[in-house]
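--- STAGE predict ---
source: upstream dedup step, 1 unique chain passed
mode: sequence only
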Amino acid sequence: MKYKVSPNNKVFELREEDFIVSKTDSKGLITYCNKIFIEYAKYTEKELLGSQHNIIRHPDMPRSIFKLLWGTIGQKKEIFAYVKNMSKDGSAYWVIANVTASLDENNSIIGHYSVRRKPKSTAVRAVSDLYKEMVDIERRSGTRDAISASTEYLMSILSKGGKSYEEFVLSL
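--- STAGE serialize ---
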């Protein structure tokens, strides 16, 4: 079931000791979520299980970041990313996410595993500005060119700093 949620201006922080954990199948449907995930997402476990993981996607997140994320884990590599999520009530919360592919005995992807923690506030400020510009680029570029235009901008920023996205994320 798809829920119609609109963002509001409320943003809350994770506690230092929180670990948000979720697992999905290979199509991105949630198969497991811990109590901390349920608490922050503000959905019930029943509402979350079987739903697409993007149920918590905040519209302030550039689509190109998710393309990078899915492309990386599709290559069976882990990725670290800063992500702004949206709760069922429209409030937001930032996380530093570590996402990996779950593999079967034949080394085939059968799902995804994600652990999220509280990010540093300085990192959130830096990433917020970058992501805002990327979302603006996506809106200006139109549906067909949005992701490529935003990705091109991100890569130009990263190349100026001589870092990959993961190096950038881990340096904040």
